[in-house]
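User: My collaborator sent over this chain with a note saying "see what the structure looks like." That's all I know about it. Can you take a look?
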Amino acid sequence: MRNLKITIIGNSVALRTRPPEKFPLNKNYGQHLEEIIHSHSPDRSIFIHNKAQGATTIYNTIVKIDELIQTFPDFFIVNLGVVDASTREIPLWFYRLASNKRDRLIYNIPEFLYRNIIIKFRPILVKLRFKRSWISFKEYKRYFEILIKSLIKETNAKIIVLPINLANTRVEKALPGSLKKHIQYNNIMKSIALENDQEFIDLSFLETEKHFPDGIHYSTIGHKIVADEISKIIIKSLAK
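Assistant: Without extra context I'll predict from the sequence alone. Here is the result:
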């Protein structure tokens, strides 16, 4: 029985459990997925490369696409969009400065301004910026299409696209207009996935209180359910 390789492309949604839990309750859907498939095919070696990274945009993903292609998996799981689509109180370049971990004045000043002043006025600043996203809808559509077509062309892997978790009341209050953007970006990801004969998983049945309580990241239960939904597609494909 041949090995099975899966690569996860995404942002912190594919990594973190919220609220935070201690092992073994802090497993993300990639880890749950490995266990599910192993229980179904115990003789098969399963390798899951989780290439997700916090605050990753579609542009960041395109820049490192060769690194993703090099994994040459049987399946790609694409979990992008929330970083790109959500409305923002500051431009992306300022966020990169403020969130930089290096202890230098050029980074410390933006961090201080953000944590002590800007964050207190997020909704107002979002509106003053006309509810702009970090990556516009037009750019996101173009880059996402490039990503999907490139992965198909270079690897012939099956691609499974996950939607953005729709902004809950907490997120919408802090970043007004995000819910509308999330719906728009989800629609284009679904459209591009289906046009290229790939999979788009509908997770609209998830409940924010149980499954992504912070409005962005999955809870322990949420990660398990997402893994179950992904595994159905993979196991069905392996049976062919």
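A starting point for your reply to your collaborator: The chain has two domains: 4-86+135-238, 88-130.
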